[in-house]
Amino acid sequence: MINPSKPQKKTALLPMIICCALFFIFGFVTWANGTLIPFLKLALNLKTDLQAFFVTFASYIAYFFLALPSSWILKKIGFKNGLVLGMVILGVGSLIFIPAADNRSFSLFLAGIFVQGSAMALLQTAVNPYLSIIGPIDSAAARISIAGLCNKGAGVMVPIIFGILFLDNAKEVTAKLETTIDMNAKNAILDELLHRVHTPYIVLAVVFVLFAVLIKFVHLPEINAEDDDEVLVNDELMTPIVAKTSIFQYPHLFLGALAIFSCVAVEVMAGDIINTYGRELHIDADLLRFSTSFTLICMLVGYVLGIATIPRFVSQQMALRICALSGVLLTIVSVFTTGYVSYYSVALLGLANSLMWPAIFPLGIKGLGKFTKTGSAIMIMGIAGGAIWPLVYGFLKDKLHIDFQHAFLFAMLPAYLYIIYFAIKGHKVGFKHK
Question: Which of 116, 61, 75, 42 is nearest to 275 (CA)?
Fold first, then answer.
């Protein structure tokens, strides 16, 4: 078993490969939302962006409700069986898309997305702490960055693949729907659009189940954190507090969960909302379908920088401060410029957001010892930020009629400012200084 109280000389290779494969799957499923938002708005004739943003809500809100139950499930059935179960549930969620398309049911699509989100809550609750402690804690951000390359690499691919499959000839289809009066002809166009869902999601379901079988038959050491009450911290001249009796005695954990909430909020805003933002800027529609890919390519660049520099040249905390401050500056540029400058400033937020999760997660769970699994689940609950923030933006824009750029500013700035607080002070709360 892996014991995080004894730092490893090197990271275990096979667990690292499995973790990277899982992060690729997470990225593929999660960033499909960037394409599903405009696709379902078109195919289901949704009236407002706020309605379409329930795609991200259904996906990310599952983490809030399922993260803690996931930690209990993992304690009962173990790490490996939890991964197998999560992959099977992910396949079931994918298959729900088929009747949803056949019945042209937005609520059924949301149900399928919620089931997928529930599966990923279980998978991420297992994998994130595992990835943090299969090697030295000081280099946890670098390992998460390597897995992040796989995650965002999938994120780059899926908008391109799904954009071609789902949004091919989107301008022509939209024009045809607007000019077609006959309802039968209009329904035939919409049915043809939704039929595009069938093959991709059947293939995904098969792949997920096959990967579950693979996991079942490979050796993965279990996490052994039950007897560990002290985890080394890497800098800041701090010593961990030991012999705690309750998860609530670790305030930095809850501050970290709120930082994850803010981090995922700005990630989703930059990755999934960029399509809507670009449409308001009158960016060419053929370019827009690849918007999420642009953001995620920038994130990939950031991950490479993280792998090269953490902890050799910069600490996890310093990387977090630099990223959050860059996010503030790029947000301001995007709001007070127009056209392609504004559009690409949003895409560049991917670079600013890249190292935030890899830095926040290990800072949030450091020193938890036997509470590591439960603490991880609480951190994973913070992913709900991706559910709430697009709705906040949609409400500001569609309901309060605030200009789309200023609505973006009002949504993004508070999240980045909180992350800066966590990077400077929040992660230290509850630790004694030497």
Answer: 42
Residue 402 Ramachandran class (φ > 0 left, ψ -120 to 50 alpha, else beta): beta
| Lowest-confidence region among 48-52, 226-230, 282-286, 354-358 | 226-230
Q: Report which secondary-structure segment, H or E, holds 433.
A: strand 432-433
In this prediction the pTM is 0.79
Tens-digit pLDDT profile for residues 350-406: 999 988 988 898 889 888 888 877 888 899 899 999 999 999 999 999 899 999 999
Q: Burial, 282: exposed, middle or buried (Cβ in 10 Å; 0-12, 13-18, 19+)?
A: exposed
Residue listed under structure tokens 């991706």: 386
For residues 428 and 252, the answer to whether their CB atoms sit within 8 Å is yes
Q: Is the pLDDT of residue 328 over 50?
A: yes
Q: Which two tokens stand for residue 202?
A: 């059947």
404-409, long-range: CB < 8 A, 24+ apart: 404/276, 404/277, 404/280, 405/280, 405/334, 405/335, 405/336, 405/342, 406/335, 408/269, 408/273, 408/277, 408/331, 408/334, 408/335, 408/346, 409/331, 409/332, 409/335
CB 5 within 8 A of CB 228: yes
Give the phi and the psi of residue 2 in degrees, each rounded to 5: -85, 125
Q: What is the C-alpha to C-alpha distance for residues 189 and 78, in angstroms, rounded to an integer?
A: 48
Q: What are phi and psi of 12, to 5 degrees?
A: -60, 130
**Letter for the amino acid at 405?**
Q
Residues 80, 171: Cα–Cα separation, whole Å: 46
How open is the CA angle 158-35-186, to the nearest 5 degrees? 130
Is residue 408 within 8 A of residue 390, CB to CB? The reply is no
